[in-house]
Amino acid sequence: MENLKKNHAIPKATAKRIPLYFRYLKTLDQSGVKRIKSNEFSQMIQIPSATIRRDFSHFGELGRSGYGYDVPYLIQVFSNILNTEIEKRIALVGAGNLGKALINNNFRKNSNLNIVVAFDSDPELIGKTINDVKVEDIAKMSEMIKKESITTVIMTVPSSKAQQVIDEVVDAGVTAILNFAPKRLRVPHHVQVQYIDLTTELQTLIYYDENYNHPDLTTI
Amino acid sequence: MENLKKNHAIPKATAKRIPLYFRYLKTLDQSGVKRIKSNEFSQMIQIPSATIRRDFSHFGELGRSGYGYDVPYLIQVFSNILNTEIEKRIALVGAGNLGKALINNNFRKNSNLNIVVAFDSDPELIGKTINDVKVEDIAKMSEMIKKESITTVIMTVPSSKAQQVIDEVVDAGVTAILNFAPKRLRVPHHVQVQYIDLTTELQTLIYYDENYNHPDLTTI
């Protein structure tokens, strides 16, 4: 299965769906379902079955027509692709309400994803421990990230601080950043930034609700 | 411009980018920039200029080759599309850490988006006021949503409670739901659900970081 690791040809849209497929396949497996047809899987995860079949085709012959997909095998393939056997040690920057919510949840359904340390500049927070994660002084961030060889960071700092923080963590060796500040940031080419922009998501949702469900309401 | 409201032909991917375009155009306008070329805009928002031109083409002739786009005009068009002049009254269900973070932020850069009420079942929270938003007993949710004619809800409740809450708000007239529980929910056809799945975003980010930046590291 080693060849599956080199997935340079997988479209970004497919890569985005793999974690979702993986989660649902694990749920199926835990419920004793060992085989599933693409149209059943489609209904369950609300993704068109043509999309599922096209996505799965990137990983070779994973199913047979009329028989469906072998659930344990798919789990093995996706687990391998996502490297879920290897712990990902994550640093969180910004331990406000959103940061606290992320630490308290700490991706507990995915045991390999671990927020191991948090950083903040608030003296009230520094030294505190939240769900076994210690909040450290942001002044020590660069040094600790280097020492711990952390390459993934979640940022929940205000937009005004985001560029400064990102420059510092990138200098310390971070290459993957999940950022909750919507402002686009400058990073070197080898660094991946994923933006979670809640306002945009909400505006898109409302736009869809108004224009596709009740078109008449929007013309009042 | 009335005809722009009926955007049944706009692809979902384009609709998703409109709020982002809108935010950056407002920033440009506030900085005194009244005209921008697609390649400059592209660099600023990190979206390919071909995508921007294709997206904008859905809204008619918004720019001229070599001249660039008229910023105030685009703002007017997108504001109209997004209905930003009309207040959206939003209810939040689940006032834990994540809910509190959302109430405290309350989309303050978009004055038309307003969380006006929150619901929770925790007696410690009921009756409290966070950033001028009162936390009400979840037992009153259905009645209050109907009374206030609220159609948009943000849900930050545990996965195990999500279906029950969604059934109740949909019965009360809600048609747009931003949901932070990753589990797919059953809703009637006229209801839009947008899932914010932080674990999936993080897994996708790490997958990209490992496979596209440092492919050699993943084969150790």
Short description:
The structure is a homodimer of 220-residue chains. The first copy, chain A, is α/β, with parallel strands linked by helices and 220 residues long. Chain A has 8 helices and 10 strands.
Describe this structure in words.
The structure is a homodimer of 220-residue chains. Chain A folds into two domains: 12-82, Arc Repressor Mutant, subunit A, CATH 1.10.10.10; 88-200, NAD(P)-binding Rossmann-like Domain (Rossmann fold), CATH 3.40.50.720. In chain A, 43% of the residues lie in helices and 18% in strands. Chain A is built from eight helices and ten strands. A seven-stranded mixed β-sheet of chain A has the order 6-7-5-4-8-9-10. Chain A has a three-stranded antiparallel β-sheet with strand order 1-3-2. In chain A, β6 (129-130) and β7 form a beta hairpin. The N and C termini of chain A lie far apart (58 Å). The relative contact order of chain A is 0.09. Chains A, B: GO terms for molecular function: DNA binding; DNA-binding transcription factor activity. Chains A, B: Residues 20-59 bind DNA. Chains A, B: Residues 83-184 form the CoA-binding domain. Chains A, B: Belongs to the transcriptional regulatory Rex family.
- What is the number of helices of chain A? 8
Q: Give the number of DSSP strands of chain A.
A: 10
> What is the H/E order of chain A?
HEHHEEHEHEEEHEHEEH
Cα gyration radius of chain A (Å): 21 Å
Topology-level CATH name of the largest domain in chain A: Rossmann fold
CATH domain class of the largest domain in chain A: Alpha Beta
The CA-CA distance between the termini of chain A, in Å, is: 58 Å
Number of domains as seen in the coordinates of chain A: 2
Low-confidence stretches of chain A: 1-7, 214-220
Which chain pair has the greatest contact? A-B, 68 and 68 residues
* CATH architecture assignment name of the largest domain in chain A: 3-Layer(aba) Sandwich
CATH superfamily of the largest domain in chain A: NAD(P)-binding Rossmann-like Domain
- State the helical fraction of chain A: 40-55%
Query: What's the quaternary structure here?
Result: homodimer
The general outline of chain A is: globular
